[in-house]
Structure formats: C-alpha cells, structure tokens
Amino acid sequence: MEDDLTPYRRLIANGLPAVMVAHVLFPAEDDVPASFSARWIRGVLRGELRFQGVVFTDDLSMAGAGVVGDIVARARRALAAGCDVLVVCNDRAAVIRLLDGLDIEPEPASQLRLVRLRGRDGLPREQLLASQEWSRCQEYLARCAAPPALRLESGST
C-alpha cells in the first residue's frame, strides 16, 4: 500500500545522501515552516522514515523564513529542529551577522553525517585520467561542445 511518503521511503532505501527542507507551512501539522519543525525533521524524516543523511535548510534569507525571527534566530531554530547545514544565499550582511552571532557547538551526530556526505575514496587522479571511461566521457563532452555542422543550400531561382 502506497502512502504520501512512499517516494521518500524509496529514495532513502536507495541511499539518498541529503535533502533540503523548505519553508513551507502545514498549519494542520505544525505552527512553523517545515525547515524549523522538529516534528517534520526529527519526527517524520529521522524518526518515521529513518533518514540518516544530511538535512540542508532552504535559504534562511528568504522571506518565508522570517516568521521565526532574525537570521541568528532562524539558524538556531533550524539547528534545534535537526538541520545539519544552514544555507544563506546572496546576503553577505546576513552571513556576517550569522557568523558573529551563532555560538552553538555542532552536534556529534550532525558532524558524522557531514563527514559521510563528503564521499569515499576514488581512483587516484592518474589512474582516472588513464581510464577508458574517462576517455569516452571526454570525447562525448567534446562532441557536445563542438559547433554543429552547418550546410546552407540555396534554392533555384
């Protein structure tokens, strides 16, 4: 039987490494947007769905985030709800206020999730550059970047 969470269950079962929560409000469920909601992040996402990946906030400088206060209050609320990464876009002054005003130690579980997100060891660079797969990809990219052949034909008059 499928429910509203089935797509997320499938993604998580297939190793979804991270999600971004939105500043969307579901007033029947919580009085704050999902990006600041422990009910959604810790309860549904981490609890019910058993998501072990990284949770990014939506842009904390967006108007939809303003319902919980200034940029520092938004960051505190998002971290308390279970977010791991605070996103602030196109607002240098807000970033500076956040860096100056946020004095919270990261949670160890959050730090572990961030380390896991960084990936795994891959091929050494020399081995990657010598591989056939790399060569095929380079050839494909070159074909995509090349201008198309253009042939003009004139009509007879």
Short synopsis of the structure:
This protein has 157 residues and is mainly alpha-helical. The chain is 45% helix and 8% strand. The model has no long low-confidence stretch (mean pLDDT 91).
User: What's the order of the H and E elements?
Assistant: HEHEHEHHHH
Overall SS class:
mainly alpha
Number of domains: 1
How many strands? 3
Supply the number of helical segments. 7
Mean pLDDT, to the nearest integer, reads 91
Strand content is 5-15%
| N-to-C span | 68 Å
Helix content: 40-55%
Query: In terms of per-residue confidence, which ranges show pLDDT below 50 for 5 or more consecutive residues?
Result: none
Overall geometry? extended
Tell me the strand order in the biggest sheet. 1-2-3
Give an overview in words.
The protein has helices at residues 6-13, 38-48, 71-81, 92-101, 108-117, 125-130, 132-145, and strands at residues 18-20, 54-59, 85-87. With 157 residues, the protein is mainly alpha-helical. The chain has one domain. Helix 3 links the parallel strand 2 and strand 3 (85-87). It starts with 5 loop residues before the first helix and ends in a 12-residue tail after the last helix. The mean pLDDT is 91.
